[in-house]
């Protein structure tokens, strides 16, 4: 890699790091909202809502295509996020 390309790479990686920090803040906000949702659930079986998951993934696909993002990337990200939060809810569910 040429020195000029190396400099460009470093700059792009710095932008990626900054963007990752923004994503961490968004994940924190999302986690706080998921905790509020969990507090409203009375039964552990209410944690997984297959209809909602299907609707979310459909909307993400539409938005991805509209924004010229590869929908396979966003689908994988959202599926992983959804199931990570399902696991989080199961671990944090407290019977009332």
Description:
This protein is mostly helical and 96 residues long. It has a single domain, classed as Chorismate Mutase Domain, subunit A. Helix content is 80%, strand content 0%. The chain is built from three helices and no strands. The mean pLDDT is 96.
Q: TL;DR of this structure?
A:
This protein is an all-alpha fold. It has helices at residues 3-40, 50-66, 71-92. α2 (50-66) packs antiparallel against α3.
Please describe the topology of this protein.
Layout: H1 3-40, H2 50-66, H3 71-92
List keywords for this structure.
96 residues; mainly alpha; Chorismate Mutase Domain, subunit A; elongated
Oligomerization state of this entry? Answer: single chain
Low-confidence stretches: none
Question: So what's the CATH class?
Answer: Mainly Alpha
Helix content: over 70%
Structural class: mainly alpha
Give the radius of gyration.
18 Å
Shape: elongated
Overall pLDDT: 96
**Proportion of residues in extended strands:** under 5%
The count of β-strands is: 0
**What letter string, H or E per element, gives the SSE order?**
HHH
Q: Sketch the major β-sheet.
A: none
């Amino acid at each position: 890699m040429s020195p000029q390309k190396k400099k460009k790479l470093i700059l792009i990686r710095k932008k990626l790091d900054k963007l990752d920090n923004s994503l961490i803040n968004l994940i924190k906000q999302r986690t706080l909202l998921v905790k509020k949702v969990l507090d409203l659930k009375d039964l552990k079986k209410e944690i997984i809502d297959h209809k909602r998951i299907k609707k979310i993934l459909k909307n993400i696909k539409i938005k991805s295509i509209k924004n010229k993002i590869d929908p396979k990337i966003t689908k994988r990200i959202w599926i992983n996020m959804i199931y990570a939060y399902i696991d989080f809810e199961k671990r944090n569910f407290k019977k009332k």
